[in-house]
Amino acid sequence: MDSFSLKGQTAVITGAARGLGLAFAQALGEAGANIAVLDVIDPEPALKQIQTDHGVKVEFYKTDVTSREQVAGAVERIMREFGRVDININAAGIVKDEPFLTTSDENLSKTFAVNFTGSFLVAQACANAMIQTHRQEIDSAKATPNSPTPIHGSIVFIASIATHISTTAQRISCYTASKAAVRGLVKPLAMELAKHGIRVNSLSPGYTMTDMMRGLQREQPKLVAQFERETMFGRIGTPEELKGAVLFLCSRASGWVTGQDVLVDGGASSWKHAATL
Ligand SMILES: NC(=O)c1ccc[n+]([C@@H]2O[C@H](COP(=O)([O-])OP(=O)(O)OC[C@H]3O[C@@H](n4cnc5c(N)ncnc54)[C@H](O)[C@@H]3O)[C@@H](O)[C@H]2O)c1
Fold first, then answer.
1. For residues 259 and 244, what is the distance between their CA atoms, to the nearest angstrom?
2. What pLDDT shows up at residue 99?
3. CB 91 less than 6 A from any atom of ligand 1
4. Is 207 helix (H, G, I), strand (E, B) or coil?
5. Is the pLDDT of residue 266 over 90?
6. Which atom of ligand 1 is the closest one to the Cα of 236?
7. What is the 93 CA–ligand 1 centroid distance (Å)?
């Protein structure tokens, strides 16, 4: 059996209209998963292309992850339209560069609402949907003697390199704390959900070229050049370079991995790089 195959499974991915979330959707679609996307903006055409390229189902649900009502409505529709939820990746996120001493109430509440509360609400709705999915499988497995253990669930939170190391190039205490709060969910949820066969991990991307990075660069033109010096390879990462790690965390290949953070950063957090000498 291919332990990386996700054939027949359903993945709920937030923030996959573009950027890293879209790359995660491509990786999971290529592995055979059907994809349900929650985002507030219209998706790039590449999202629907996954359906054509890999023969999987791809649907978009315009949803603000900070709204419990909208999240519940979207996950209910997904259960009706896909019949199951097996995987949840929480990539929806926002960042604003603002010094700690003058961080605004607006930044504080918005950043925590999207990055932390949004991840919490979607993971909660998806975990309940996974339990419902598995209950049906367990019941039908019971009716069939010697049937294999039902497929288990996987939740992946998207944290950040910022929770591992600070950079002089950014003033993002508010963002960093929101992502640390997300990582704070990983171990207690792994413990609470293990009895339901659900694994919970986080992925911390390093500096990666996406629209989020382009937005930061517009305000600080030298930012990417600085980040390039901070990795061990003299460049920043591409969304494609995170696909392997996310597929690992979502598939049976990581069946014995839960409660962990996986940092994929081109070595940026592992040395005293030139930028700080
Ligand atoms: N790009 C990087 O270098 C980097 C590094 C570390 C962590 N991350 C994290 O990875 C994730 C993806 O980042 P990205 O670079 O692809 O950013 P991005 O801005 O390109 O994509 C983020 C997506 O989240 C969606 N989103 C924002 N608010 C939302 C809401 N309220 N409800 C639903 N969707 C919402 C956006 O519409 C967008 O499609 C984020 O959580 C980010 O913090 C990115």
1. 19
2. 98
3. yes
4. coil
5. yes
6. 3
7. 4
